[in-house]
Design brief:
Length: 990
């Protein structure tokens, strides 16, 4: 059964966004006409009464009664369900049981190519009409409208907002035309292949080469070894309308199709529309049998007691070291019974025990950065147990021995009862939370659960069933059972391995095979202590603080509570999301407070500040004290504040607040997490030069801020100069200064939360004021008129280009920033059409607007694309052309509707969750203007005029050249209008 299947029915929020007072409308809403359909006949293929639904055949897993299943005479199967999360949405999935493993040798890449072609042209949609049509219906391309191709299936995904019977009927009709009757001609194939090749190019490089080589070794002798869904250049360029049509006829058949529809509609209506649009689907000929995917087999003469087979060493100078070995077993279909799932749960417990020990070993300063064990059924090809880790140095053999020694101990000796109890508590908390949160599980997630279950040939279960099965078995779990399951996980006919290293000569296949075959002594030192820690044993933060003011803020039922020490809190207790409480703490000055000369410690802090400890609790103790609890501790740095964040529940809220407050009042400064963060940063830095995307990840944020060191990626020299003492000296004063704002939104008791706040944040010592000079630390926009050049060491056909314009920042301009998002989406659609649809030069160009609200400036509009080096000038020309056109010519109503309707629907759907309101209101205790601006949110994002867009474009684009960045291969000269200001320089800091 699919362990995390969810059953849902949403409780509406107390005041959805539509009920907020709305500012005057700036333009008439554009309504896309959809004709009222004739009622579809009642569904006749539903499996009701005593009939066993198709997904439960051969299974004794109790049915999830919220799902309805049907199987039509033509063999098509479907599943439907009512769900109102988010409200007024329908999520539709069409799964075809054919992926890259179903391709013939000369068809490699056809399953993925066909996925693209269905969106290009079909029975009811003309050339390139699919994306704009879905946009007019309110769906955003890429998030609401998408598809995926895997080795075993192709899935078409649609999340349609503002659903009604007419939109449902229209969408089912369009989907049926796409799936059943795509236009597969030489012209459509010829237009789409360059886009696939652009996608292939963007995915290429060292990481893809190492993944391909690893796949070829780990799955040697199986189709999976050579069947990357993207295909090959040769087979794609040889594709014709006729050859792709043959693949479509062979696999796109009703008996190979499952349709899932989950939505805020009567499920009988969902079923009726599926039957109406797909019930008459008939195809010629008998169905083709799926090819034999093959089994993992040991080489002839392999010793069953030491089944190490194929190994490979992959040398990629710009990739960090990583080693994966796999114990492989043949995959076979199973009877998805309760007993089978109990076995899977024991397998999961065994893996969790080993992973906790491996992590403990790494934290203690071992020979590897991380290590993990994971069992997985891969593409119906193999049941495998993977062991993956990253050596900290060229001494990979010691790291391999250390990892294998921890596993050897788990294979030799049963775990203790205390260890098992700890993992059981963790599992039970997850299953309990899934039950508590079942009413707020999104429909798209539910639909995806069915698709996943069909792919692995298993059933689905309600969360109550999963919890019941687990509780029914947990008391009978014994150390010997876990030992037996551990041994089974590491038994198989063949073991294979792949080692990625930057250094030639460091290893070879024979040496790797010998290291895997060598005997190893079990290492029990990583077994964890069973000592328990309770929150009531920890010292108090201080004397509980007094509430000096409390009252509503005037929006929704949000309340502001101020404490005598200056801490301010926003609370909204509601039952819209049962079992969920979101907590966010904003404190200090964020990036404003960071000294540029010490910015290395900011980056290390994102990785190590929390794990360096709290009061009496180190990293291990933090894990132990939160066992069986729903708690989190995320840390991030924003423009104007540092933040802690967690998703918790009412019974854990007080202790969650204690941990957050204790980190500010009594921070701990363990050295190991800092040293580990340094090692991780070094390994990451060495890989950035391997591709244009890596260089952008390393350099872009600082470049867009005129080289501001606070946003730069620390280079190797800066990392070498840092140390734990400097880390503490940097962070200790920052944790003690600046205002504190706590936001608690969700399902909790107000009075209990206020009391917990008084004992924690209200008990903090008064804070130091932020230094006055930090207000001036607003990032500058680069003034370079020439194109900035950066170089990468990846493939010669890879490049990236960025063009950007300055915008603004601050609360005063928030309404304009929302209108700017409409303009940016207009820009995005035009750039997508120019670079992907017409030129085929880039797979996924993107335009984005960033407007920091905490500081009065620092914003920018940027367009980015990955492409071939020779297409970089074309990108700059097209982006400048579009910017000029937007500043001089107003968009028409239809183009505007394709942007505003998806934005309106996106906001309406997001507003059904507490996190949406939390993000909108954070910072409002410092700047109350945010509260008033909330009332115009929906209007600002979804209502405008063509003239307003032109004026905005004139303000930000008119008469101004964009700042340009090109990332190109070393030793490459660009043609076209590019005047590099630093072309001779090879990348700094490599």
């Amino acid at each position: 059964m699919t362990i995390f299947a969810r059953a849902t029915r949403q409780l509406a929020l107390l005041a959805p966004i539509a009920l907020l007072s709305v500012h005057p409308v700036l333009a008439q809403e554009i309504v896309v006409p959809v004709s009222t359909p004739a009622p579809a006949p009642a569904p006749t293929a539903l499996q009701t009464g005593d009939e066993v639904p198709w997904i439960y055949r051969g299974s004794d897993v109790p049915r999830d009664e919220e799902w309805l299943f049907g199987e039509m005479e033509n063999g098509l199967r479907y599943a439907v369900r009512r769900n109102g999360v988010p409200p007024d949405q329908a999520s539709i999935r069409v799964r075809i049981d054919a992926g890259s493993l179903h391709e013939a040798e000369n068809e490699r890449g056809y399953a993925h190519l066909l996925e693209h072609l269905l969106f290009r042209e079909s029975k009811y949609l003309g050339t390139s009409e699919a994306i704009p049509t879905w946009q007019r219906l309110g769906a955003t391309f890429g998030s609401d409208t998408n598809a995926e191709t895997s080795p075993t299936h192709t899935v078409y995904k649609l999340d349609l907002p503002n659903i009604d019977p007419a939109k449902l009927e229209e969408s089912m009709k369009l989907l049926s035309g796409m799936v059943r009757e795509p236009v597969l001609s030489d012209a459509t194939v010829g237009a789409e292949v360059p886009i696939i090749l652009a996608e292939m190019r963007e995915r290429g490089g060292a990481a893809q080469r190492s993944a391909d080589a690893s796949r070829a070794t780990l799955f040697a002798g199986q189709r999976l070894a050579t069947r990357n869904p993207i295909g090959t250049v040769e087979t794609l360029q040889a594709a014709t309308g006729r050859s792709v049509n043959a693949f479509h006829r062979r696999w796109y058949r009703p008996e190979n199709t499952v349709i899932v529809a989950v939505g805020d509609l009567d499920p009988m209506l969902l079923a009726a529309q599926i039957e109406a649009k797909f019930g008459d689907w008939q195809v010629r000929g008998e169905p083709s049998a799926a090819p034999d995917f093959g089994d993992p087999l040991a080489p002839p003469g392999t010793d069953p007691a030491n089944p190490v087979g194929e190994t490979v060493t992959i040398v990629e100078p710009d990739l960090p070291r990583s080693l994966t070995y796999a114990v492989l077993r043949p995959w076979r279909p199973v009877q998805d019974t309760i007993a089978y799932n109990q076995g899977l749960l024991r397998d999961s417990l065994a893996q969790a025990l080993i992973n906790r020990r491996l992590e403990s070993r790494a934290r203690a300063g071992g020979s590897y950065l991380y290590a993990q064990v994971r069992q997985d059924d891969i593409s119906r090809s193999t049941d495998a147990t993977f062991v993956s880790f990253a050596p900290l140095s060229e001494d990979w053999e010691t790291a391999l021995t250390d990892v294998r020694a921890v596993i050897a101990d788990a294979l030799a000796t049963p775990p203790t009862d205390e260890e098992i109890d700890r993992e059981i508590a963790e599992f039970e908390q997850v299953f309990e939370s899934s039950v508590a949160e079942r009413s707020v599980m999104a429909g798209g997630r539910l639909a995806d659960d069915i698709v996943q279950a069909v792919d692995i040939r298993e059933a689905v279960a309600a969360p109550e069933t999963v919890l019941s099965v687990f509780r029914g078995m947990k008391d009978a779990i014994t150390p010997q059972q876990i030992l037996d399951h551990t041994r089974a996980l590491f038994s198989g006919p063949v073991i294979r391995a792949a080692y990625v290293t930057p250094a030639a000569g460091e290893a070879d296949a024979d040496r790797l095979r010998a290291a895997l075959s060598a005997p190893v002594e079990p290492d029990g030192s990583a077994r964890l202590s069973a000592a328990t820690i309770a929150f009531d044993e920890l010292p108090p933060i201080g004397e509980p603080g007094d509430v000096v003011q409390a009252g509503p803020i005037g929006v929704l039922d949000v309340e502001r509570v101020d404490f005598a020490n200056g801490v301010k809190a926003l609370l909204w207790d509601n039952d819209a999301e049962p079992g969920r409480v979101s907590v966010k703490v904003r404190f200090g000055g964020g990036y404003r407070a960071i000294d540029p000369a010490q910015a290395t410690y900011a980056r290390l802090g994102e990785m190590a500040l929390i794990s360096s400890g709290v009061g009496e609790l180190g990293e291990e103790e933090l894990d132990r004290i939160s066992t069986g609890r729903k708690m989190g501790f995320d840390f991030s740095i924003d423009e104007g504040a540092f933040t802690f964040f967690a998703q918790t529940r009412a019974e854990d809220l007080a202790d969650q607040l204690y941990l957050f407050a204790a980190k500010l009042e009594m921070p701990r400064w363990d050295e190991s997490p800092v040293l580990r963060a340094q090692a991780a940063a070094r390994l990451a830095y060495e890989s950035f030069a391997t591709s244009p995307a890596g260089v952008l990840n390393r350099d872009l944020e600082a470049l867009l801020r005129d080289g501001d060191a606070r946003f730069a990626t620390p280079d190797l020299a800066a990392l070498a100069a840092s140390d734990p003492a400097g880390f503490r000296a940097f962070w200790e004063p920052l944790l003690a200064q600046g205002p504190i704002e706590v936001l608690i939104f969700g399902d909790f008791q107000r009075d209990e939360a206020v009391a917990a706040l008084a004992r924690t944040f209200g008990a903090l010592e008064p804070r130091e004021e932020l230094p006055a000079e930090i207000a001036a630390r607003v990032p500058s926009f680069p003034a370079d008129e020439d194109t900035t050049i950066r170089y990468h060491r990846g493939d010669a056909n890879q490049a990236a280009a960025v063009i950007a314009w300055p915008s603004g920042g601050g609360v005063a301009g928030l309404r304009e920033s929302r209108q700017l998002e409409i303009l940016v989406q207009l820009f995005n659609n035009r750039l997508f059409d120019a670079m992907r649809e017409r030129a085929g030069a880039s797979y996924a160009p993107v335009v984005r607007s960033e407007w920091p609200s905490d500081i009065a400036g620092g914003g920018r509009i940027s367009a980015l694309a990955q492409l071939q080096p020779e297409d970089v000038p074309i990108f700059f020309q097209e982006a400048e052309r579009i910017a000029d056109e937007l500043a001089t010519t107003a968009p028409d109503g239809d183009e505007l509707a394709r942007v505003t309707e998806p934005l309106r629907q996106s906001i309406s759907r997001a507003s059904s969750g507490n996190l949406f309101w939390l993000y909108q209101l954070e910072g409002s205790t410092v700047d109350p203007r945010r509260i008033a601006l909330l009332r115009s949110l929906l209007t600002d994002y979804s209502r405008t005029t063509p003239e307003a867009m032109t004026q905005l474009a004139q303000k930000y684009f008119g008469g101004r050249d964009g700042w340009r960045l090109a990332v190109i291969p070393e030793d490459t000269q660009l043609a076209g209008e590019i005047r590099p200001s630093n072309a001779p320089a090879i990348m700094q800091g490599r």
